[in-house]
Design brief:
The complex is a heterodimer. Chain A contains twelve helices and nine strands. Chain A is α/β, with parallel strands linked by helices. Chain A has a single domain, classed as Alpha-Beta Barrel (TIM Barrel). Chain A has a nine-stranded parallel β-sheet with strand order 5-4-3-2-1-9-8-7-6, sandwiched between helices. The two termini of chain A are 30 Å apart. The model of chain A has no long low-confidence stretch (mean pLDDT 96). Chain B has 16 helices and 14 strands. In chain B, α10 packs across α11. Chain B is globular and about 55 Å long. The mean pLDDT of chain B is 95. Classes of the chains: A alpha/beta, B alpha/beta. Chains A and B meet through α3, α5 and β6 of A and α1, α8 and β11 of B. Chain A: Its EC number is 4.2.1.20.
């Protein structure tokens, strides 16, 4: 059985290009506004969407996503709103996953969370603070339900440890391009190609690179060596910087279409 | 019975490691360094020398006879960690971790602080050992503990006020974790309590367990027997685990942790994590957490900045579940009553954190009666709290 995410990478590999994966926290800029952002992603040519589960203590996130999470939580976003946003994305015909810190999964119920992902058409879950050592219950749940567990690997992950993590992944492997938190950077870390090359020696899974990608040029560069390009903070900044929601949505769509060109120019 | 952690740092279902993959390498390096140091005679001698000649160990015990008159006549014995250099138990852990930092070849330490005790201790150790030091402190806490901010700056540390979230200890830890993820190659995160990802809960406990080892001998020498109960305040739980640990195998000794009930656990404005929380994951380990139905951390409240934390060390969670230790909650008002009482009956101004343990002793003493012996970890002195206490009691400044 394959997920829409698995199918996406079969397609983009056949087209000899990278996939564009866009991130938005559920409930940002508002519960309804998030649904419009998802539509703007789709209109702009995004291949897959990551719905963030806003969390009170996001240690992997820089100021931009922290601010977005705070704004979302202030409006009462919880599991229900996360799964609603997921369904909006999958109903629009794109592959979609949820990105969440571990505690909201544990609180919701591990197997129940995996089931709700599947029930809403979701392909999988990215878990940035779940180490493989603590993942026994999650492994059992995702295998039973048939969704993709996506773990993050970092430049500091050793060669000895890398296959242990990537062998637990399906869908894709999330390569954190640098040692640091989420946020836009003026350039993508020079360590990213090296990390992707090291991951390739351990797995045939697609590899998507995240952290610090915000422009068409950067997307093009990453698409030269990775199977997926993940962009988050740049979209949030586009929304935060816009004078009103309409302008923000237009900016998101414009950025998405530029990035969509970028991921097609890399090879 | 002991509660030795497994190799992955679990205490029953608690503890473990829930962190970004980027930190795994540093945590494994730290774990290897601390395990090697435990049996390295050079390290052991270096740390013992610092304890003797710098922090002033062994700390003494003091029998609080006039205070005891208010505690049902039980004998009350205070372990005087407040007399350590920097004024609290925190120095035990920072000296150990600072030595490890040097052994790992790192030149920069970062630390979080609530009340400022751990921040001051970290800045002190950094000054002593020539390390760069950055302390993250919630903006709210920099206001209520401004004296300690000045102390850290005098000691050469940079103090970064944290503006995110509730602007208290929990957010200071988040910000320190973000710094660590970014600068892990050059930087050691000198975590100040028995929480966080493995190996911190075990390592920090091991640097503090000297409190229980010393005081067990001292109480035996003074009274000829073991105490009936050992009491300590619990925020993250470092001073409590430090004094409890040596007594865990003494089955007849009751171990009682006093959490901060703030306005009262029933009001929701409290920091009593074991009493009023539920199992979850926060700051890298599974433990009791104050959280809502979506797993979002709920902000804690306490008059004591050092106890104002919505998590607790995983070993305490386990000791609670297996029934080896008891945890009670003490309100701001009860703690401040005990604070004032110790000042007036013994001439000792305790930290407001510590006053929670003293309030617990007033209860437990009355329960146990005349012949009981109660050992309390007097974890810190109250100089830093004079302003808060003066405001509380309406003393004009």
């Amino acid at each position: 059985m394959t997920t829409p995410l698995d199918d996406l990478f079969v397609k983009t590999r056949a087209e000899n290009r990278a996939a564009l994966i866009a991130y938005i926290p559920a409930g940002f800029p508002s519960i309804e506004g998030c649904k419009k952002v998802i539509q703007a992603f789709v209109d702009g040519g995004v291949d897959a969407i990551e719905i963030g589960f806003p969390y009170s203590d996001p240690v992997m996130d820089g100021p931009t996503i922290q601010a977005a999470a705070d704004q979302s939580l202030a409006q009462g976003t919880g599991a229900k709103e996360v799964f609603q946003a997921l369904k909006v994305a999958t109903d629009a015909g794109v592959a979609a996953v949820v990105m969440t810190y571990w505690n909201p999964i544990e609180k919701y119920g591990v197997e129940k969370f995996a089931q709700s992902i599947a029930d809403n058409g979701g392909s999988g879950v990215i878990t940035p603070d779940l180490t493989i050592e603590e993942s026994a219950s999650w492994k059992e749940a995702v295998e039973k339900i048939g969704i993709n567990p996506i773990y993050v690997v970092a430049p500091s992950t050793t060669d000895a440890r890398l296959p242990k993590v990537t062998s637990r992944c399906s869908g894709f492997v999330y390569a954190a391009s640098l040692m640091g938190v989420t946020g836009t950077r003026t350039s993508v870390s020079s360590g990213a190609p090296d990390l992707v090359a090291r991951i390739r020696t351990t797995t045939d899974l697609p590899i998507a690179v995240g952290l610090g990608v915000s422009t068409r040029e950067q997307a093009k560069g990453v698409a030269g060596y990775a199977d997926g390009v993940i962009v988050g903070s740049a979209f949030i900044n586009a929304l935060l910087d816009a004078p009103n929601e309409e302008a923000g949505l237009l900016a998101v769509k414009t950025l998405a279409s530029e990035l969509a060109q970028g991921v097609r120019e890399g090879r | 019975m002991t509660t030795v952690d497994d190799l992955a740092g679990h205490f029953g279902p608690y503890g473990g490691r829930f962190v970004p993959e980027a930190l795994i390498g540093a945590l494994e390096e730290l774990d290897a360094a601390r395990i090697k140091a435990q049996t390295d005679p050079t390290f052991i001698a270096e740390l013992a020398e610092l304890h003797r000649t710098y922090s002033g160990r062994p700390s003494i015990i003091t029998e609080a006879k006039r205070f005891a008159e208010h505690a049902g006549g039980a004998r009350i014995i205070l372990k005087r960690e407040d007399l350590n250099h920097t004024g609290s138990h925190k120095i035990n852990n920072v000296l150990g971790q600072a030595l490890l930092t040097k052994r790992m070849g790192k030149k920069r330490i970062i630390a979080e602080t609530g009340a400022g005790q751990h921040g001051v201790a970290s800045a002190t150790a950094a000054a002593l050992m020539g390390l760069e030091c950055v302390v993250y402190m919630g903006e709210e806490d920099t206001k209520r503990q401004s004296l300690n901010v000045a102390r850290m700056k005098l000691l050469g540390a940079e103090v970064v006020p944290v503006m995110s979230g509730s602007r208290t200890l929990k957010d200071a830890i988040n910000e320190a974790m973000r710094d660590w993820v970014t600068n892990v190659e050059t930087t050691h995160y000198l975590l100040g309590t028995v929480a966080g990802p493995h190996p911190f809960p075990s390592m920090v406990r091991d640097f503090h367990k000297i409190i229980g080892e010393e005081s067990r001998e001292q109480v035996l020498a003074l009274t000829g027997r073991l105490p009936d109960a050992v009491l300590a305040c619990v925020g993250g739980g470092s001073n409590a685990i430090g004094i409890f640990h040596r007594f865990i195998s003494d089955k007849d000794v009751r171990l009682i942790g006093l959490e901060a009930a703030g306005d009262g656990v029933e009001t929701g404005r409290h920091a009593a994590t074991i009493t009023g929380g539920s199992p979850g994951v926060l700051h890298g380990n599974r433990t009791y957490v104050l959280q809502d139905e979506n797993g979002q951390t709920i902000e804690s409240h306490s008059i004591s900045a050092g106890l104002d934390y919505p998590g607790v060390g995983p070993e305490h969670a386990y000791l609670h579940d297996i029934g080896r230790a008891e945890y009670r909650a003490v309100t701001d008002a009860e703690a401040m009553h005990a604070f004032a009482l110790l000042c007036k009956t013994e001439g000792i101004i305790p930290a407001i954190e510590t006053a929670h343990a003293l309030a617990g002793a007033l209860q437990v003493g009355n329960e146990l009666g005349k012949d009981a012996i109660i050992l309390i970890n007097l974890s810190g002195r109250g100089d830093k709290d004079v302003q808060t206490a003066a405001q509380y009691f309406g003393i004009p400044l």
